[in-house]
Amino acid sequence: MRSSGYWKDYELIDASDGERLERWGDIILIRPDPQVIWKTEKKNPLWHNAHARYHRSSTGGGKWQVYKKLPESWDIAYRDLMFHVKPMGFKHTGIFPEQAVNWDFASDIICSSDRQLNVLNLFGYTGCATIACLKAGAAVCHVDASKGMVAWAKENAQLSHVDDRPVRWIVDDCGKFVAREIRRGRRYDGIILDPPSYGRGPSGEIWKLEEQLYSFLELCVQVLSDSPAFVILNSYTTGLSPSVMEYMLGTILLDRFSGKVSSDEIGLKCSDTGLYLPCGSTAIWQR
Question: Which residues does 59 contact at the CB level (< 8 Å), separation at least 6?
Answer without folding.
Answer: none
